[in-house]
Description:
The structure holds 2 protein chains of 2 kinds. By secondary structure, chain A is of the alpha/beta class. Chain A has helices at 3-18, 21-28, 46-63, 91-103, 124-130, 138-146, 158-161, 177-185, 207-213, 254-278; strands at 67-69, 79-83, 110-114, 134-135, 150-153, 189-195, 204-205, 219-220, 237-240. The radius of gyration of chain A is 19 Å and the shape is globular. Chain B has one domain (39-355): NAD(P)-binding Rossmann-like Domain (Rossmann fold), CATH 3.40.50.720. In chain B, helix 1 (49-58) packs across helix 7 (240-250) and helix 3 packs parallel to helix 5 (179-194).
Amino acid sequence: MGPAEWAKRSLISWIDRRFDPEFLTQLQHLPVQLNEYGYDPFGFSREDIKVVLWFSQQLYRKYFRAQVFDIDRVPDGRVLVIANHSGQLPFDAVCLACALLLDRQPPRVLRAMIERFIPTYPFISYLFARWGQIIGSPENCERLLEAGEAILVFPEGARGISKPFTQRYQLQAFGNGFMRLALKTRTPILPVAVVGAEEQAPAINVKPLARLLGAPAFPVVPTPPFFPIIPYPAKYRIYFGEPRTFLGDPDDDDDVIDSLALQVKNSIQTMLYTGLKERRHVFW
Amino acid sequence: MSSGEAMTDADAPPRPAPPALAPAAPDPPPPEETSLLPGRVVVTGISGRLGRLVAQRLHREPGVRVMGIDRRAFYGKPKDVEHLRVDLRSKRAREAFRGGDVRALVHMGVLHDPRVSQAEHYTWNVQGTQRLLEYCEKYDVRKVVVLSSANVYGPSPTNPQFLTEDAPLMAGQRFPEMRDLVAVDMLACSHFWKNQQAETVVLRPVHILGSVTNGASDYLRFRVAPTLLGFDPMVQLIHELDVVEAVALALRPGVRGIFNLTGPGEVPLSVILRELGRPTIPIPHFLAEPLLSRLWRWRLTSFPVPEIDYARYVCMVDGTRAHEQLGFRPRYNLRETIRAVLREQMPPPRDRKADR
């Protein structure tokens, strides 16, 4: 056993002592298929998610003090979780995954679709896979839905996460790929509104710099280090909507699919406004 | 020997196994066991390790006479196996077919030695395969089984996790030296369409482990394994005897098509090395390439630089079709498959150098 292996083992046992034993038994019964070495076909590993869950739990409970509403609406079996994406840094995805693991009974693994360039970077290339994240291709998504998993999709994509502070809580244009997938696999769609993430990094977008770097955006925040690395501790409120199964032809015209996607977008927008009305302050 | 089924966790509650993710879990009854096509079976590359295993598997089948074509000597040849010791490209290879009693061709004599020149590769693989398929057409061979590889899809960061048989063969994109292997696969596929009365089977197995000499097995036999720092792709493995069994399945009458062959499951590369007890040296990927290219130039390694990508990105395939249509089930589990590289099952061929 090498030193790295030893370090990993002792970290896992340290974390095991800190988690509630009942929760650990629930983790043992996660509805995923693991082989004799403890990996699923996409590289997910229960031991690895335990480690990252311990650290993100601190963010979720203590830093963002996330509050979830109607989490019992998350169904068993296959589901597409559609949420608004915001805040320059993808902490909304972290908190959603934590919500499904920590606050839902029984816990579920939420698998997010990651960008195609991720596998070319060292460390995150395999760590993201160990945590259950998958490359965002329709084939992968379909395969996991067939296996009855929960998949997180942000139809706004980069347009959403990198939008400036002035456009907070205004949903950007939705892609319609998720709707075609849902129609094809008859998957219920669960709209989710994340309130709070939009204020974690109030940025302006320096467009000339973004164009120069070829990036979708170049956000600048008012506090050092001026680039969004550390989010503000805004309070997260996560609203789960009613799951809804759409029926239709997955190969229909874009207009038809777009109108269905618009229905999902509108229900998320409504939940966002309700959530904003209910909250008293950004930070508590 | 345990079956490669039901790899769910032991203490997990029973639940309906979804079909797409667990091709091995629900065992539908395999297609009824019909024996192989009787008659003469020509096996190319019979003196290779996999070829010898195939010969051993086939020659006892009732009614099957095995004839090998290989320019290398065949050590430990069973008495009833004929061996035509000729070059695949030479005219004498036709002699195997002249009698007109050849029922099936198993083509596994594909040359893949990175040190051999590209010209040699092309004439051997592309021309040789082309000739063989012409003989098959001319002498009415009704069954052609070509052993290709899942590596023809090529590793890529944009690959979906599981490639189906319809995925384009992109291995040549980053690894031009592999284009002849892609060409062999495509020749076989075109024979499938062109020669409709023949049953053509193209098998694309994932990394074959065992006593065979191929990139994957050789790499896992290193005392200390170099890895890429920060990369740990999922890989698929298959035991050499499972591949032999798949060849036998493909030889049954009525089977035709292109099949990915997957073994007992998917594991990260690091887990395989840990199972084998290999210490690793993680090398940053930006150093690995120049380092390997120097070692390659100084002839200190048999791994060409583009093969690094197989330790970096996924190149995994979906074996559902072979499971359903071929009735293929891997018999060795993950641990047995990984450990197969440790066993020396056959004496090493002594005249490898002389035959080249």
